[in-house]
Amino acid sequence: MEKVVILGTGPAGLTAAIYLARANMNPVIIEGDQPGGQLTLTTEVENFPGFTDGIMGPELMDNMRKQAERFGAVFKRGWVTEADFSKKPFRMKADGIGEIEAESVILSTGASAKLLNIPGEKDNIGKGVSTCATCDGFFFRGKKVLIIGGGDSAMEEANFLTKFADNVTIVHRRDELRASKIMQDRARENQKISWKLNRTPVEVLSESDKVTGLKVLNNETGEEEVLETDGIFVAIGHRPNTGFLGSQIDLDESGYITVKPGTTETNIKGVFACGDVQDKRYRQAITAAGTGCMAALDAERYLEGDAILDWSETLNQGQ
Asked: What is the DSSP letter of 141?
């Protein structure tokens, strides 16, 4: 039986592994189908502290992994399909590994950006196709970009991108937006934003590993047209990777894990959550790493028999 098992190897999971390994907690980290998380799909990362000239996403994650291994963290490649948190020890089944028993578990399985699943999209991620304006907007200074989506996230990212791009075009498959009125108004008032509504994306076009355009279907005329662009930002939402948990862990209406405020504790003692799987607001590498540190410290206290008090008890003590 393991002391602590960490599910996921993004910035949150790897930071938790570093802290726990240094504390001699012998963490075991289960890698999913995308070791390193979403940062392995990005190119240069310029907003992670400590790298004055930036660092490539895959290199940053590889460095974190090596740092955790240096202190004794053990990595196993597998995909957890079932989890039983109803009693101790906790039990999980993972393809490629078998059954795992643990005294505590840290859930850092992240959230996957929803994609359009059209030709040329996945092939050009990191080459002009992005799912994070905050991460990659800087690289499109003075360029022409497209935002695909009609919700609040798309409006917010479109406004953000106007700080860098000369022109931002919002592409949406319907003639009406899902975004709130205030977010729509902000986007429509921005003179750098133009619109291509009632268009369904069909194919991402590229030349020499560089995005050149987006082929769309005009839903009114039935004709195809090509929108020339330097970059395409897909903003149709994220999907937290929580499907294997069933109904054991409390989730919000969007499927994200809910934690007690100020901690990484879930509704089950000994099970903690960090990173994007419990964060639908920020979704940044640095915030994920921060909660990974919190989860490690919470798990360490729990394993040492000094579990954090219930939130209500903490409030009562502060009164």
From this structure: T
How far apart CA 309 and CA 61 sit, in angstroms, is 33
Catalytic residue among 132, 230, 279, 298: 132
Indicate if 135 belongs to the active site: yes
Domains along the chain? 2-112+238-308 (3.50.50.60), 115-234 (3.50.50.60)
- Residues composing the chain: 319
**Of 123, 136, 209, 252, catalytic:** 136
Assess contact for 166 and 144: CB atoms under 8 A.
Answer: yes
Strands (E), 219-259: 224-228, 231-234, 238-240
259-296 per-position pLDDT tens digit: 999 999 999 999 999 999 999 888 889 999 999 999 99
Sorted by sequence, the CB contacts under 8 Å of residue 292 that are 6+ apart come out as 11, 12, 13, 14, 15, 16, 19, 108, 274, 275
- Choosing from 95, 123, 135, 274, which is the catalytic residue? 135
pLDDT digits (tens, 9 = 90+) for 83-123: 999 999 999 999 989 999 999 999 999 988 889 999 999 99
Look up 230 and say whether it is catalytic: no
